[in-house]
Amino acid sequence: MVISKAIQEEVIQALIQRNGEVHRHRIEIGVRQVAARWHASDGSADDFHAFCRAHFYPREEQRELVFQRFLSKLESLFGNLHRIYRELHRELHVDTGPMLPIDSLFAGYDPFAHVQEDLFQTRLAFVALLNFPIYDLNTKNQDGINWSRRQWAEARLADYFRQRIPASVLQHRTATYTRADEYISKYNIHMDRLRVQGQPAGFPEGQKLISHWGLRDEIKALYAQPDGLPRQRLIYQIMNRILQQDIPEIVIDNPEVEWDPLANRVYRDGKPLPPPIPPEGNRRYQYLKSVFDAERGIDAHTPDTPSLIERRFLLDREIPEAEVERLITDVLSAPVLPSIARIIQQRLGRPLEPFDIWYVGLKPEPQIPEEDLDRQVRQQFPTVGAFQDKLVDILRRLGFSRDRAEYLAARICVEPARGAGHALGAEMRGDRAYLRTRVPGEGMNYKGFNTAMHELGHTVEQVLTLEEMDYYTLHGVPNTGFTEAFAFLFQSRDFEVLGISPETTHWMEWLAIHEMWSAFEIAGVALVDMRIWRWMYAHPSASPDDLKLAVLEIAREVWNQYFAPVLGVADQEILAIYSHIIDTGMYIPDYLLGHLIAYQIFHYMQDKDLAAEMERMCKLGRLTPQVWMHQAIGEPISADRLIQSATEAVRILQPSLE
Ligand SMILES: [Zn+2]
């Protein structure tokens, strides 16, 4: 630390003398917060002293003005930079016609890259740190229940400046994640090149699937085909070879060779390739290790949270690690799971196989043929413009008053998406949220409409949590699980909006069972992800080969403890196939939290007025997850609601299952 303890004490004493003993506590916190983040390049000890003298505001009226300045200037700064970001990404996100190579260069320009360091170098961050205390998660969760909105807004202001990580360290981390991400995003398997005993394995010409999402979704899709089982097993074998890394390097993303995943032989034009055929080896685990090393580089610069594990739980998720682990094990050991496994087994008419963790047949589907749905949707929404024009109608059908529907619709801009669709909220009032959706030439189809309803849920949340937020630093929701909850709610009301009654019996019951089975799968992956990071921190200098063995062992352990008893098969490693384990730095637990939070809010809303409740909840803004849940629905984040609903559903449906 550039500013020694002795200098800090000297400055604290000087400020107390100047401003009065009554300010001692605030002075001590402020001076220490600034000193902890003051670099040599910020100035000498004398500069530090002079800065603290000039910028400590003892009088409440002045402090109020400083606070207001931060609110309006940060909104302008972040809001306008976000508009630039949106414009630079326009061609990538919006279907504007053929792309030019320069479009991805514009998209690679990050207008936020230097903001944090600039705020420190201009000393603005230090003014905030000198006058507004940073609170830890415990204090926020315990005292925060009784805090005023203003106290929360001040706490969030200080949070912006909690970390000061040198730009070069951040750049190294970004580059590492980008490389890992590239490795993952190019990991394709050419399915039409797969062979079984010399014969094509039966996948359509030109089919290319990305690991693991594409492979997994193909396993899901094959449940609908009576002869899908051998291909499901083949895909499972491919996944195992990727995990074990004995997949031949030459078959990855390469349409030029044929591969027999069972025998693990490679052919070109039907003739066996001469040995040696090098396996991928341990590349997958090299990338994971590089992500770990990059995060270790950050550790030294975040002394309050000196590991990615602490940063993820205490700063990003704001739910302690032990609490998340309890939610995970609650799901994994839910007594209802064996009953759901029996339902699946009855439906499939065979003993369960490991990949049945992805069984999708429980999801309630409308009893209306897809073509009929497509036709109805196409009539109502022939173009992207039609969806924009009907926003007011759609919102009114969801229960918003005419006034509020018009207010919201005026702040949402619908555009044609290049990809599947997404929602991009604003960062300053007066701007608009962008709903990007895909509408083919012949008009919107049902799947597209269903996705557009999901994105509409996001954009309505984005408008409500910004435009009418009492303090800018509180805008938004605690984390992605909360915005997904609203998106899911809108999506689930799609028939209501179309004006059709789907006549699905026991819709709520099947939904609960489906959600429980999905939560089971993702909880397993989340636990594997967490245990891998613990292992890496316990063995910081392990080689990629050691890491590979550890990952596979962790995956088997979790499987044997929780999945083997339910599915009846032991010693599987499949939970480790999730690509995001490699390239996101322990993001997977967020999926489970999203599931649980979304289900709790969904359940709470069943007998309530969606529009009124959503408006009320969106006013809460960025509290911590537990405080938000407490104020929104009066219960903490918990797996109980989902487990209870699924248990009840199995009981209700049981007679028809016998
Ligand atoms: Zn979403």
Number of separate structural domains:
4
Which strands sit side by side, in order, in the main sheet? 5-6-7
What portion of residues is helical? Answer: 55-70%
Low confidence ranges:
none
Distance between the termini: 70 Å
Number of helices: 31
What is the number of strand segments?
10
In short:
The chain has 658 residues and is mainly α.
Task: Summarize the structure in words.
The protein is mostly helical. The chain folds into four domains: 128 residues, no CATH class; 99 residues, no CATH class; 220 residues, no CATH class; 101 residues, no CATH class. 60% of the residues lie in helices and 5% in strands. It contains 31 helices and ten strands. The strands form four sheets. Strands 5-6-7 form a three-stranded antiparallel beta sheet, with no helix packed on it. The longest helix is centred in the last third of the chain and has 32 residues. The chain is globular and about 85 Å long. The N and C termini lie far apart (70 Å). Zinc ion binds next to helix 22 and helix 23. The site of zinc ion has 4 residues, from helix 22 and helix 23.
